[in-house]
Each structure stands twice: as structure tokens, then as C-alpha cells.
Design goal:
Blueprint lengths: L1 H29 L11 E13 L6 E5 L2 E2 L1 H13 L16 E5 L13 H4 L21 E2 L1 E3 L7 E10 L5 E9 L10 E12 L4 E12 L1
Antiparallel strand pairs: 1-2, 1-10, 3-9, 4-5, 4-8, 6-7, 7-10, 8-9
Length: 218
């Protein structure tokens, strides 16, 4: 009986030492005695889309719609964050970052699993089987939006905004994409896309595109 008690005491002591070591290790690493208190969840790819169309001399009409973030493009972002460079893709700089807004007339809704990188699938409206063409004329060439950095703490947002002005001839728009560069080449990555009710813009009409990215950490 005494031997059984001794074995139980030894096992209890060993368990206590393991737990103590875990807590001590967590304290050394984080400065917090609660090793579970420093778990952080980052959600940096929660993008939302809105467009506001204004006919020349008319009243602004807005649509907000759910967008798709492509799996392959999310993987590229992860590689950039953890490795400093993604594949395919360019080195992050003023000409290579997810601040460029592209447009297309293609209303075929994208899905997350579609191929979305490179000179073919990276084009707005042409991911996977979308079979569309990104605009490079009519005032809709991909362009860097105005970036508003996040402020505050958890739950903050940043935005990428641009107002396009239709030139000539009239053109239909039905989808916007958030891409990493102007050029549609091997380094192009289409991060997110959103389709909306098609609008035919006449020369002089404007459409303001707003991509809102929510950043959460706890």
C-alpha cells in the first residue's frame, strides 16, 4: 500500500513539474504567467466591397456586395508575411502592393478556389473559368487607390478607394478586383473580387470603388 502511495506521489510531483515548466517557459517567452493569455488570432483578409455610381449631373447610387478572396492569393499573402516574398508575385514596393483596383464588365461570379495569379488568371474577371477581360481603356485601367491606414486597436479597418471616370465610348462595369500591380503579367495576383449589378456608364459618369479591409486581433 505504501509503495502505491509513493508511486502516486511521484507521478503527481512529475505532473506538477511539467505544468510548472510550461508556465515558467510561457513567462520567459511572454512575460505573462498565464500561458494561454497570449494566444492571438489575426484576421487580416476580411475585405468588403462597395461601389457608388454617379451619372453625369445625377445622384449617386451605391451598392455593397459580398466579395470573394481567392485561396491561391491568400496563400501568396501568407508567404509575403512569413517569408518576405511570395510565389508568384513581385517584391513588395510602391508598385507592388494590394492597393490597385481593377475593373471588368464580366459578371460571372468568382469562387475562392479559382486560379487567381499570373498573366492569365490574375486579370480581373478572368480568374479560373470566369473567361472575362480586365479593362485597360475607357478610364478603367487598374490604378492605385487612396489608402487610409487602420487606426485604433482591435477591429480597425483600412480602405483602398478610387473614383473612375468613364471616357468614350460608353462601357459596362460589373466587377472590381483588388490586385497587387497594374501590369497583367507573371507577377500579377488578384486578391479579391466582387461582382455587382452591371452598370452602363456614359462618358463623364463616375464610379467610386471602396475596398475595406478589417483587421482583428485578440
Amino acid at each position: 500500500m505504501d509503495l502505491t502511495k509513493k508511486r502516486g506521489a511521484i507521478a503527481l510531483l512529475a505532473t506538477g513539474l511539467v505544468v510548472a515548466s510550461f508556465i515558467l517557459g510561457g513567462y520567459v517567452a511572454t512575460g505573462n504567467l498565464n500561458p494561454w493569455g497570449n494566444r492571438h488570432y489575426y484576421q487580416v483578409l476580411n475585405a468588403n466591397f462597395q461601389e457608388c455610381y454617379t451619372p453625369l449631373g445625377g445622384t449617386s447610387q451605391c451598392q455593397s456586395t459580398h466579395n470573394v478572396i481567392f485561396d491561391a492569393s491568400a496563400k501568396y499573402v501568407e508567404q509575403v508575411v512569413e517569408k518576405g516574398v511570395g510565389t508568384p508575385g513581385c517584391v513588395v514596393s510602391s508598385t507592388c502592393a494590394f492597393k490597385f483596383i481593377a475593373m471588368t464588365s464580366n459578371a460571372v461570379a468568382p469562387t475562392a478556389g479559382m486560379a487567381s495569379t499570373g498573366g492569365t488568371n490574375g486579370a480581373c474577371g478572368n480568374a479560373g473559368t470566369q473567361a472575362g477581360t480586365e479593362y485597360t481603356t475607357n478610364g478603367f485601367t487598374a490604378v492605385a487607390g487612396t489608402v487610409t491606414d487602420l487606426t485604433g486597436s482591435t477591429g480597425a479597418t483600412s480602405t483602398v478607394v478610387n473614383q473612375f471616370t468613364e471616357t468614350t465610348p460608353a462601357a459596362s462595369v460589373a466587377q472590381s478586383c483588388l490586385v497587387n500591380e497594374v501590369a497583367i503579367d507573371a507577377n500579377r495576383v488578384d486578391l479579391a473580387a466582387a461582382t455587382f449589378t452591371a452598370i452602363t456608364l456614359q462618358p463623364g459618369d463616375t464610379i467610386q470603388i471602396t475596398w475595406t479591409i478589417t483587421w482583428n486581433w485578440t
